[in-house]
Amino acid sequence: MNTQLGRSMLRRMLRQMLRQRAGTCGFLILSLLPVLAQANQVNLNINLATPVMEAEQSHRAFIKISLEGFKQQDKQARIPANVAIVLDKSGSMSGDKIKYAREAAIMAIKRLDERDIVSVVSYDSRVQVVVPATQVRNHQAIYNAIQNVHANGNTALFAGVSKGANELRKFLSKNKVNRVILMSDGLANVGPQSASELGELGASLAKEGISVTTIGLGLGYNEDLMTRLAGFSDGNHAFVENAEDLASVFQYEFGDVLSVVAQGVTIEIRCRNGVKPIRLLGRKSEIIGNRVTTRLNQLYSEQEKFVILEVEVPEQQAETELELVAVNVSYDNLLTQHQEKLSGQSVARFSLSRQEIKAARNDKALEAAVEQVANEFSRSAIEARDSGDLEGAKKILQDSASYLGSQAESLSSPLLQKQKEEALEDADALDSEQDWNKQRKELKARQYKRATQQTY
Amino acid sequence: MKRRTPLILAVIIALPLLLLAWFGVRFQLDQQQVAAHQLSNLVTSRLQSIDQQFQEHFFLLQQRFILRADALQQETEGRYSVDSVRRFIGQSAAVKQIFVLSESGDRLFPPQDQPLNLQEQDFVALTRNLLSAPERFTLPVLDPTASTPPQGVASQGYSGTSNDEIQSARLNNSVSQKARYSADISAPALSASAQERAAERPHGWIAWYAEAGLQQIFWLQDSEGNTVGFALNSSRLLSDLINLLPSSVVAGSDVSTEQKAEQKDEQETDSEIRLINDRGELAYSWGSGEGGQVAEAGKKPLQTLPLSHPLASWHLAYYAADMPAVITGWLGLFALLLLLAVGLSTLAYLLYREHNREMRVAEQRVNFVNQVTHELKTPLTNVRLYTEMLEQELPEDDVVAQRYLGIIGSEAGRLSRLIENVLSFSRLKRGHVRIRYQQGVVDTCIAQVVELFTPVLSTRKLQIRFTGKASHLCHFDSEIVEQILNNLLSNCEKYAADGQFVDISSWQEDSSGRLYSYIRVSDFGPGVSVDESEKLFEPFYRGSDKLTEGVSGTGIGLGLARDLARAHQGDLMVEQLSPTDVISGASFLLSLATPLTVPAMTAVPPMKAEKPDD
């Protein structure tokens, strides 16, 4: 296993050396010690699931590229947040739902202090700016305003998100965590309402560094729209069946928001030596020729985010080494407020010895790859079910389960075993027509979490 | 009379009410029209200002794109390298895709010789037709109607000169706007001259239908003749437009005073404005109050305004609830009218009741007088009867007794004439007069009256000179003739006692086959003035004070006489003496229809059988 990690750009190195920053002197040694945690520095790990491959044979290989946010040194030094809470107050929210939503929002805002900016937007057929973007100084005034939100009317989701984003823009800064938290329980029915239109908006917001977290409440919302809106900007997505659970979801979400350490992460992977990229599992990516690029909007403190790249490796002679991919990562370090770059590469060895191949296997990376592959199966199962092919969908999930089962055994991974059981349960649940709506939402949310390694 | 009073009262009530109602309604309608006009002007200007805002937004975008295009050109030295353009797309929130066409129409970006990513592939597929006609971008089409390109492409150039004003006015803003707008790379600093040069080069907006809706493209020719096109992210565009528009009111919010003020502003206009996209779908709505409910109810908008290019086929619709002010106006008018109607009606009712009561009292009095008069008749008849009998019984030589009896008789006669007058009067008023035609000679009848009056008049030193020429046998009611003559002669006795003579002449004339009898009674008293001549016949009128002083009378005599004459198909009038006449005095001419044969019908249809002793 040879993974190298270091800074690629001489300019960057020189600048950092000149500043004599702690932890930067060891950058040369670091290439040999990937596990060494570095203060205020994102960790890049590139792991090949099968670092030693059988020679004289072409392979499909999985490469896990993971990034881990550094630890926030102390709670006080966290990155200020700029959050817009967008609440659905359409007629379907009436009663307890809106009450819980209000409470959840208030509870969440309690965690903020005067470093942070908060705005609250509610929407029904129209949009109301309940709390214009404001520093969190006078908590009570904000709570009072939120308490005045009452359910009524239709669902102008697009306009709600637009206005929420507009409130964010008032204090938009690269040094803040800019996030729209959208909570909806219904289908958008005023203004644009298709997943693609909302996705476009999400993509545009992502370009500005605004991420959108979507929380679907109950069984009435459009999970495609919500996951897509979140997906473009790498926000979180959650399915909350009971309004009582909103508070905890908001807490998790704000926990995430307050632990962001890096933003605007772009990963560029170049395949070398005839290696062909096949797909990037989990996240949206752009594959042009042998170049794969993807974006992560943010990295959270001490959380690992990864992507799995599946490549095709041409056959090689035994006892040779081959550089498969070179990875360049750039991100905005919120603590130092500088853009930083990382690079690394993945090198495979080819051998004829099965022993060596087996011994070198990176179980963790493979486990992650299998998890993502199964996740892709689950996605295609939904597509099949949507197109009415119930049997096909079942078959996909069963295949996925058996694939997971065999891999779980060979890797002796309880995680995959659990995922296998889930897949089997999902296959059973496909049949029931009345539960499908809920099932689909659960599935979508679960897939989204797996793909983005969301913590809650 | 009884029916006329309520009618008049009704008219008195209705007329002013109707007039007031008419004016009120007209005034109200005028007000409404004025208000509606003002409102529509207000709404139009409001909608237009929104359109203007949108135009400014596009203009800002245009300014930015011109700068970006220049920066891009400089950065890539006019080659528009793939990576740079992609990086630019990756950073620009408002732009979905960029295309670059060379002067010869070849596509430089998305590249033709390199693999494309998914979005680029989609974009190329969508815009194949658009990009295959590069002449569309060579010159700005100033007149949008002059070219009707296929597939609904509408192109319109912004002439550089007309934009200069806005440019200079908005340029300072654009920087701050931009910073707020996106966290993109900071705008490359360009000299003002470079901006101007950029603005002079051909550029324009294209709106074209793709996928599910209108897509906007801004294109610009760079200094080397390449055409750079920026396709907007349509969702983002809508989102930005929405952010230009106000949000709705939060009920009871008290976060900041600014918000409160805004809220107050909004509440004043109870309306909703909707942004409708090219598919006729509601894209965004804002406003307050009942406007939304009006819109929900599917009513027509009060006003719509189509948006300008490149948002053509979008429009704004203004919905409003009915103006409450107008309703109160109507309410006020109706309340006023109702109040007035009630007031007038009450007044009229009170008047009517009072009037009715008085009428009843008067009627009772008249009845009472009639009754009394009637009761007087019987004893008087007895008095006269026994006076006559006594006159016959008494010896002729008892002169004194005879003279006394004569006085009793004549006074009784006078009293009975008076009673007869009163009774006839009330009969006439009730329409109970019946003419009883009997055969006779008019002169005979006159002679009887003259004979009866001779003693009375002679006591006043008046002498009757009667010349009778109405000697034809004809039909007439002798009682009526007697009564009329009685009245005329007793007037002579009362008022013309100084005249010495009373001339009575009668004659008959045949006019169109009917025989008319005329009787003229003239005296030589003070006479009747022209003014008085008609008033004399009005009931209860009694000449001038000078004349009537010290003379008793009821004032009904002449009127009664005329009414009787008219009932007899004749008339009674005062003859005006010609001014040359030296002789004063009054002259009354009585004309009567006195047919030779019995007429088929009486003058006044009998209402009920009359008692013979009336």
From TrEMBL, chain A:
PROSITE patterns from the xrefs?
A: VWFA
Matching InterPro entries: CLCR (IPR051266), VWF_A (IPR002035), vWFA_dom_sf (IPR036465)
Origin: domain of life: Bacteria
Ranges where the VWFA domain occurs:
82-261
The protein's name: Ca-activated chloride channel family protein
Which organism was this protein described from?
Neptunomonas antarctica
TrEMBL record, chain B:
Q: What are the record keywords, sorted?
A: ATP-binding, Kinase, Membrane, Nucleotide-binding, Phosphoprotein, Transferase, Transmembrane, Transmembrane helix, Two-component regulatory system
Segments spanning the bilayer are 330-352
Q: Which CDD domains match?
A: HATPase, HisKA
User: Reaction(s) catalyzed by this protein?
Assistant: ATP + protein L-histidine = ADP + protein N-phospho-L-histidine
Instruction: Quote any Pfam family the record assigns.
Output: HisKA
**Enzyme Commission (EC) number:** 2.7.13.3
Which GO BP terms sit in this record? osmosensory signaling via phosphorelay pathway
Q: What is this protein called?
A: histidine kinase
Record has ATP-binding as a keyword: yes
Q: What class of enzyme is it?
A: transferase
Name the InterPro entries for this protein. BphY/WalK/GraS-like, HATPase_C_sf, HATPase_dom, His_kinase_dom, HisK_dim/P_dom, HisK_dim/P_sf, Sig_transdc_His_kin-like_C
| Segments forming domain Histidine kinase | 371-596
Gene3D superfamilies from the UniProt entry:
1.10.287.130, Histidine kinase-like ATPase, C-terminal domain
Q: Where are the stretches annotated Disordered?
A: 141-163
Superkingdom of source: Bacteria
Q: Transferase among the record's keywords? A: yes
Bias kind Polar residues: ranges: 145-163
Per its record, what are the GO molecular function terms? ATP binding; phosphorelay response regulator activity; phosphorelay sensor kinase activity; protein kinase activator activity
